[in-house]
Each structure stands twice: as structure tokens, then as C-alpha cells.
Amino acid sequence: MLYFLISCVSFILLSKSFTHKPIKSSWVGKLNLLSTWLWGEISSFLVSWFRKSRIVLASFRVPTSPPLKNMSGSLKVENVEEKERISLLDLPDLTLECIFERLSPVGLCSMAGVCTSLREKCTSDHLWKKHMKQRWDGVLGDAAYREWRSHIASSRRFSLSDQNKKRGLCESLCNLWPLSWIRIRSPKLENSSKARSRLPADSIMGLYLSLESGKFWFPAQVYNRENGHVGFMLSCYDALLSYDSQTDTFQARYSPHARRTIEDNIQWDRLRAPPIDTPPNMLHESDCLHDLKPGDHIEIQWRRNREFPYGWWYGVVGHLESCDGIENRCSCHYSEDWVGVVAEMVILEFNQYTPGSRWRRTMINRKEHREEGNEADGFYGGIRKLYHQDEISMWKRRWPTRVLD
């Protein structure tokens, strides 16, 4: 439309310029007729165009109230329409919090990409604590959070050293360059870099996304490692794990001293957070030896030799050979010579093995127990008593389908 008007005006100006030059009388009448016809066409076109544009605008307008007759009423309706156009940011903070708390992690990430204000709200730790607990609470322990803080600290040191290297290179080049005093700055680039606020690396959202992406390897423990190998039945070993979102499974890296260092396709139900804060290469200080009695469920450290890390093995406290195993007459917890004195020796049984197997039973000294064993039968370490039924049930669900030799 604009180009058409410009062409018409230029044509009219050109036609008027002809009047400064003498022209024939026959052309005067033709030019007058042409200009009269052109103005008529332009005026009719403008009238029809404005009518069509008014119809189109009216078709996109949604009436919120019945049409009013006077002009003041129409102004009031327009003001009401403007007030009813409420943005999400105009909602009260409590309402926004209720909305955000019902969003999934994917929804929070999508909402955080809308604007800076929503980004600050949707990345807050209190919104992500619930999602972290629901999905990762049974897998992440204190060791995993320490590893995450160490990972963040090392990443920051690496980024700072990398920036210093780049800065040193740029400064040396500027010193060599004869026009080093020239600085090229772009206000648009500076404003855009300030507007892009990066997600804090130490936030709960950052930890959640790093876990889901598999970039963060975290320490945890794996039941029945090597996919239930006979040599590891009813055991739980420490490993570094990475999540694979494509298969919803984990990859594990075990200690380099073990038989196999990598295992894939580990399901969620085979993982647990370490119940105690004892590294796999250290002896656990047992604090339950005095309370152990027949029928108690326990976990005990065991390793093949002193170069290997410990694994946790499930067992129960058994009866002494002098006891008939009847509960009412059992005195295994007390000394036969002194009434009320706790017996020194404790029998530990691993009933997944056949009777007579060298792995079936072992005996420890309640008062002087440290690490006991030899190169043939392995070394038994610290003991922790299982008090909660959910821990006991977790072990029983992994009971082998056949008795082991």
C-alpha cells in the first residue's frame, strides 16, 4: 500500500512539473482527464481498504460485554479489557509457589527458560529438594554429596586456571600488537552477556541435572555385583555410578583391585546409599558386638586379601555348638561359667551356603574382634547389626534360587 501511494504521488508531481514547460494544447486536456481519473481511483481504493481493515480488526476482537450506546461506555469496556489481560508474573508469590510446586522437573526447566524472573524462581533449591528426594533419596548418601562438592570445587579451579591461561595469552598478544590501546566493545554483546545468568553449579537443580545427564559419577553400593555372580551373592560393594537416561539403568566402576571393574545395565533396586560413612578400604569400628545374640541379622565386612576393598555380606548370628538351639533354653549370649556375663565367642552363619562349606560359618571374639582371617578363607572385618525390617527385607529379596557350595 505504501509503495502504491508513493508511486502515485511521484506521478502527480511529475505531471505538475510539465506545466513549467510549454506543451501542446491537445495534451492539456488529456492530462487533466488523467489526473481526475487517478484521484478518483485513489480515493475509492482508500475508502474500500479502510472498510476492509475495519472489518478484519472487528473479527479479531472478542467482546467481553454487550455493546454500549454512548462513547463513555465504550471507553469503560476498553479499560476493563486492558485490566483483564493479566500476566503470569502479576500473580501473587504464594500462587506462583503453588503452581511451581506442582510442576515436574521438565516443567520447571521449561518455565525457567521463559524470562529472568521465572528463572530465579524455578531454580530455587526449595523447589528441587522434593524432586531430589523422590527420585534419588535411596541412592545418594553423605559420600555422594561430598563427592559433588569436591566435583564443583575442582570444576571451579579448572575454569579459573583456564581463564588465567587465556587471559595471559591475550595480554601477551596485546603487548605485541602495536595498536593494543584500541578496545572494541559492543554494547549489545555486553548487555546480552549480563542478561544471561548461568545456573549456580552448587545448586540442587545443578546436581539433579548432572545426575540425570550421567555426567556426574557418584559413590553408592551395588547388591550382588556382576549381575548376581555366584562369588558375590548376598553381598554389597562400593562403586562409582553413572545414570543412563536412555535405558533407565546405571553403569558401575568398581575398585581396580577387583576381578571386574565395569558393569552395565544395573537396575535401581540393586543400588543403595552407603548406610555408614566408612570407606571400602578401612575397617569399620563395630559398636554392636556386646548386643549380638542368636537370630540377629548382621552385615559384616569381608575381603579376599588385604589388597582388595571390603564388601558387605549378609548373615545371621547362630548358636554355639554346645546349645541345642531352643530359644527358651538358649544361653549363647551368656557365659556358662558366670551367670550374667556375656559370652566371648559369637557364631556367624551364612545360610546361602550348604552345610559343611567353609563359607557357611565363622567365629569371632566379641571382646577382641578386629580383622580376622587368612589368605585362604579371606578376612572378616567390622560388623553392623540390622535393626530395621526394610533392610532385612532388602537382603531376603536377593536370596539365591539355589544353595551355594
Short description:
The chain has about 400 residues and is α+β, with helices and mostly antiparallel strands. It is built from twelve helices and eleven strands. Strands 1, 2, 3, 4, 5, 6, 7, 8, 9, 10 and 11 form an eleven-stranded antiparallel sheet that branches.
Q: What class would the helix/strand composition place it in?
A: alpha+beta
| Distance between the amino and carboxyl termini | 93 Å
Query: How is the biggest beta sheet arranged?
Result: 11 strands, antiparallel
What spatial form do the alpha-carbon principal axes imply? elongated
Mean pLDDT level: 77
The value of Rg in angstroms is 40 Å
Helix and strand run: HHHHHHHHHHEHEEEEEEEEEEH
What kind of assembly state do the chains in view correspond to?
A: single chain
Q: Ranges with pLDDT <50 over ≥5 residues?
A: 16-21, 53-71, 169-197
Using DSSP, what is the number of strands?
11
Helix fraction, binned, reads 40-55%
- Summed up, the helix count is 12
Percent of residues in beta strands?
15-25%
